[in-house]
Specification:
The protein is α/β, with parallel strands linked by helices and 245 residues long. It has helices at 27-35, 76-80, 100-109, 125-139, 154-163, 180-187, 201-209, 222-230; strands at residues 12-15, 40-47, 53-54, 113-118, 147-151, 169-172, 191-195, 213-217, 235-238.
Length: 245
């Protein structure tokens, strides 16, 4: 997919929901982002010890819940019982980490589009992709609502391409690849996501010349965001859905 026919047709993707104003990756963050005008949500999914899928960014539970330890070593029932909001604000003490199924249901209820990032643990890429693709296939109306899978793992993206060939994919990298078009082809991806602090104006000129759809993460300053958009980024990821309000 080229930048002339982008997959993401909005200039902002709400990073983990309205994560500047509500606990990240919770249903509360989705609903608030929708109220603030977001059209796209980015979120993170990973495996539990018993093979389920939960919406959490960090490998450990410690930062965003009142639990501790690795997500991949914890069972679903234990994770969903944790307080996932008080770390952010006492107003969100009832917030919980939810399953992928519940997250997708809420995204669809709110009429939103989704970037689903697969948070791999090295060695567990295949079970993660198999489980996530199975849930997406069962619960997401592919072809009706915009969706793409993303991740830093090229192996995950190639596996996803095999299992859900009709769902686009985005490769996340910190810095600009030496040959971005070849890197995307190797990873079976159509979108490139880059970190703001590593991207130069020359990098963006090259991506535009190559017709590559790209986005910049994570940008919470409106002036900086407009700079990236004016230099060819199709979208920016931001913790603030109201960044351009």
């Amino acid at each position: 997919m080229s930048s002339q026919d982008p997959i993401v047709k909005e200039n902002l993707i709400a990073h983990r929901g309205a994560s500047a104003y509500a606990p990240e990756n919770t249903l509360e963050a989705i609903r608030l982002a929708a109220k603030m005008g977001a059209k796209w949500i980015e979120t993170d999914v990973q495996l539990t010890a018993d093979g389920h899928l939960v919406m959490i960014h960090d490998a450990k539970l410690d930062r965003t819940t009142n639990g501790s330890g690795l997500v991949v070593h914890s069972k679903l029932a234990d994770i969903v019982s944790l307080d996932s909001g008080s770390w952010f604000s006492e107003d969100y003490k009832d917030a919980r980490t939810v399953t992928l199924e519940d997250y997708l249901s809420t995204i669809l209820e709110e009429g939103l589009n989704l970037q689903l990032e697969l948070k791999e643990i090295s060695g567990l890429e295949e079970p993660l992709v198999e489980a996530a693709c199975a849930v997406v296939k069962k619960h997401w109306p592919i072809g009706e609502n915009a969706l793409f899978l993303s991740g830093f793992s090229e192996r995950c993206m190639r596996l996803a391409a095999q299992r859900l060939p009709d769902v686009p994919r985005g490769l996340a990298t910190a810095a600009m690849p030496r040959n971005p078009k070849a890197r995307l082809e190797e990873a079976a991806c159509q979108i490139l996501h880059l970190q703001a602090s590593f991207v130069s104006e020359q990098d963006m000129e090259r991506l535009c010349a190559d017709g590559i759809e790209f986005a910049i993460a994570t940008v919470n300053d409106p002036v900086e965001a407009r700079y990236f958009l004016e230099h060819g980024a199709q979208s920016v990821l931001s913790d603030k859905p109201d960044l351009f309000a």
